[in-house]
Amino acid sequence: MGMVYADIELTNAFDLMKAEAGELPEGDIRRMTVRMLVDSGCGTLAINNNIREQLGLRTREERAMQMADESVVTLDVVGPVELRFENRRSILEAVVLPGNAEPLLGAIPMQDMDVLVDPHRHRLIVNPDHPILAGGLLK
Fold first, then answer.
1. How far apart are CA 103 and CA 97, in angstroms?
2. How many CB atoms lie within 10 A of CB 123?
3. Structural domain range at position 11
4. CB atoms inside a 10 Å sphere around CB 59
5. Counting runs of H as helices and runs of E as strands, what totals does the chain give?
6. Model confidence pLDDT, tens digit, residues 44-97
7. Half-sphere exposure at residue 108, Cβ-oriented, CA atoms within 13 angstroms
8. Do the domain assignments include residue 132?
9. Could you tell me which residues are beta bridge partners of residue 105?
10. Distance of CA 3 to the CA centre of its chain
11. pTM metric for this prediction
Protein backbone atom coordinates (compact mmCIF):
# COMPACT_ATOMS: atom_id res chain seq x y z
CA MET A 1 0.00 0.00 0.00
CA GLY A 2 2.86 2.41 0.64
CA MET A 3 3.41 4.83 3.46
CA VAL A 4 0.68 7.24 4.51
CA TYR A 5 1.40 10.59 6.17
CA ALA A 6 -0.98 13.08 7.74
CA ASP A 7 -0.64 16.59 9.15
CA ILE A 8 -1.73 16.40 12.78
CA GLU A 9 -2.02 19.42 15.07
CA LEU A 10 -0.54 18.70 18.50
CA THR A 11 -1.28 20.95 21.48
CA ASN A 12 -0.16 20.91 25.10
CA ALA A 13 -3.47 20.03 26.78
CA PHE A 14 -2.39 21.57 30.11
CA ASP A 15 -1.97 24.87 28.27
CA LEU A 16 -5.50 24.51 26.87
CA MET A 17 -6.92 23.93 30.36
CA LYS A 18 -5.04 26.94 31.75
CA ALA A 19 -6.31 29.13 28.90
CA GLU A 20 -9.90 27.98 29.49
CA ALA A 21 -9.51 28.90 33.17
CA GLY A 22 -8.21 32.35 32.23
CA GLU A 23 -4.74 31.59 33.60
CA LEU A 24 -2.90 31.65 30.25
CA PRO A 25 -3.36 33.94 27.25
CA GLU A 26 -4.62 32.13 24.13
CA GLY A 27 -1.47 33.17 22.26
CA ASP A 28 0.74 31.35 24.78
CA ILE A 29 -0.76 27.90 24.13
CA ARG A 30 2.00 25.67 22.80
CA ARG A 31 0.91 23.93 19.60
CA MET A 32 2.37 22.78 16.33
CA THR A 33 1.41 20.89 13.20
CA VAL A 34 3.44 17.74 12.66
CA ARG A 35 3.65 15.53 9.58
CA MET A 36 3.22 12.05 11.05
CA LEU A 37 3.58 8.57 9.62
CA VAL A 38 0.26 6.77 9.99
CA ASP A 39 1.22 3.40 11.46
CA SER A 40 -1.58 1.08 12.52
CA GLY A 41 1.11 -1.38 13.66
CA CYS A 42 2.03 1.10 16.39
CA GLY A 43 -0.45 1.14 19.25
CA THR A 44 -0.08 4.66 20.50
CA LEU A 45 1.02 8.17 19.64
CA ALA A 46 4.81 8.41 19.36
CA ILE A 47 6.54 11.77 19.17
CA ASN A 48 10.21 12.64 19.25
CA ASN A 49 12.13 14.56 21.88
CA ASN A 50 12.21 17.74 19.75
CA ILE A 51 8.39 17.82 19.60
CA ARG A 52 8.19 17.13 23.32
CA GLU A 53 10.46 20.09 24.08
CA GLN A 54 8.60 22.48 21.77
CA LEU A 55 5.28 21.57 23.37
CA GLY A 56 6.70 21.58 26.91
CA LEU A 57 5.22 18.17 27.74
CA ARG A 58 6.07 16.71 31.14
CA THR A 59 7.04 13.12 31.85
CA ARG A 60 4.17 11.18 33.44
CA GLU A 61 5.94 7.81 33.67
CA GLU A 62 8.42 5.53 31.95
CA ARG A 63 7.25 2.48 30.01
CA ALA A 64 8.99 -0.49 28.42
CA MET A 65 8.06 -0.64 24.73
CA GLN A 66 8.85 -3.17 22.03
CA MET A 67 10.23 -1.53 18.91
CA ALA A 68 9.74 -2.66 15.28
CA ASP A 69 13.09 -4.50 15.40
CA GLU A 70 11.74 -6.40 18.46
CA SER A 71 14.16 -4.73 20.87
CA VAL A 72 12.68 -3.50 24.15
CA VAL A 73 13.47 0.04 25.29
CA THR A 74 12.28 2.21 28.14
CA LEU A 75 10.65 5.40 26.91
CA ASP A 76 9.20 8.45 28.63
CA VAL A 77 5.44 8.84 28.49
CA VAL A 78 4.37 12.48 28.32
CA GLY A 79 1.14 14.39 28.18
CA PRO A 80 -1.56 15.09 28.01
CA VAL A 81 -1.44 16.16 24.38
CA GLU A 82 -4.42 17.09 22.22
CA LEU A 83 -4.41 15.82 18.63
CA ARG A 84 -6.52 17.36 15.89
CA PHE A 85 -7.17 16.06 12.40
CA GLU A 86 -9.81 17.81 10.31
CA ASN A 87 -12.93 17.93 12.54
CA ARG A 88 -11.69 15.27 14.98
CA ARG A 89 -9.75 15.52 18.21
CA SER A 90 -8.40 13.31 20.95
CA ILE A 91 -6.51 13.89 24.18
CA LEU A 92 -3.99 11.28 25.24
CA GLU A 93 -0.44 10.60 26.30
CA ALA A 94 2.48 9.99 23.94
CA VAL A 95 5.65 7.95 24.11
CA VAL A 96 8.83 9.87 23.34
CA LEU A 97 11.21 8.44 20.78
CA PRO A 98 14.83 9.59 21.01
CA GLY A 99 16.21 12.59 19.14
CA ASN A 100 14.53 13.52 15.90
CA ALA A 101 12.88 10.12 15.22
CA GLU A 102 9.88 10.08 12.90
CA PRO A 103 6.62 10.70 14.81
CA LEU A 104 3.94 8.01 14.49
CA LEU A 105 0.16 8.12 14.63
CA GLY A 106 -0.81 4.70 15.97
CA ALA A 107 -3.98 2.63 16.13
CA ILE A 108 -5.32 3.96 19.47
CA PRO A 109 -5.44 7.65 18.50
CA MET A 110 -6.76 6.68 15.05
CA GLN A 111 -9.60 4.71 16.63
CA ASP A 112 -10.33 7.45 19.15
CA MET A 113 -10.64 10.06 16.38
CA ASP A 114 -12.52 7.59 14.12
CA VAL A 115 -10.16 8.07 11.19
CA LEU A 116 -9.13 5.54 8.56
CA VAL A 117 -6.47 5.04 5.92
CA ASP A 118 -7.81 5.45 2.37
CA PRO A 119 -5.71 2.81 0.59
CA HIS A 120 -6.58 4.07 -2.90
CA ARG A 121 -5.43 7.65 -2.31
CA HIS A 122 -2.78 6.86 0.32
CA ARG A 123 -4.12 9.32 2.85
CA LEU A 124 -5.81 9.57 6.23
CA ILE A 125 -9.55 10.33 6.12
CA VAL A 126 -12.40 10.87 8.55
CA ASN A 127 -14.55 7.71 8.69
CA PRO A 128 -17.25 8.29 6.03
CA ASP A 129 -19.57 5.81 7.79
CA HIS A 130 -19.45 7.73 11.07
CA PRO A 131 -23.02 7.88 12.48
CA ILE A 132 -23.03 11.67 12.71
CA LEU A 133 -21.79 12.12 9.14
CA ALA A 134 -24.22 9.47 7.88
CA GLY A 135 -27.13 11.34 9.48
CA GLY A 136 -28.00 8.69 12.03
CA LEU A 137 -27.46 7.98 15.67
CA LEU A 138 -25.09 5.41 17.12
CA LYS A 139 -25.87 1.97 15.80
1. 8
2. 13
3. 5-126
4. 12
5. 3, 9
6. 999 999 999 999 999 999 999 887 788 899 999 999 999 999 999 999 999 999
7. 10
8. no
9. 38, 45
10. 17
11. 0.88
